[in-house]
Amino acid sequence: MLAFMMQALGGIFTIIFVVGVGYVLNKKGWFDEKSSGLISRLVTEVALPCYLITGLTKNFTFSDLSKMVPDMALPVCSVSLAMVVGQTVTRFMKIRQGRRGVFCTNFFIANTMFIGLPVNLALFGDESIPSVMLYYIVNTLFFWTLGVHSIVSDTSDPEADISFKNSLRKLFSVPLLSCLVALLLIILNIKLPSFLYNGLRYVGNLTTPLSLIFIGIEISRISLRDFHFEKDIVWGMIGRFIVCPLCVLALVPFFTVSPISVKVFTMQAAMPAMTQMAIVAKQYGADSQYAAALSFITILFGLAVIPVYMTIVSMNF
Question: What pTM was computed for the model?
Answer without folding.
Answer: 0.73
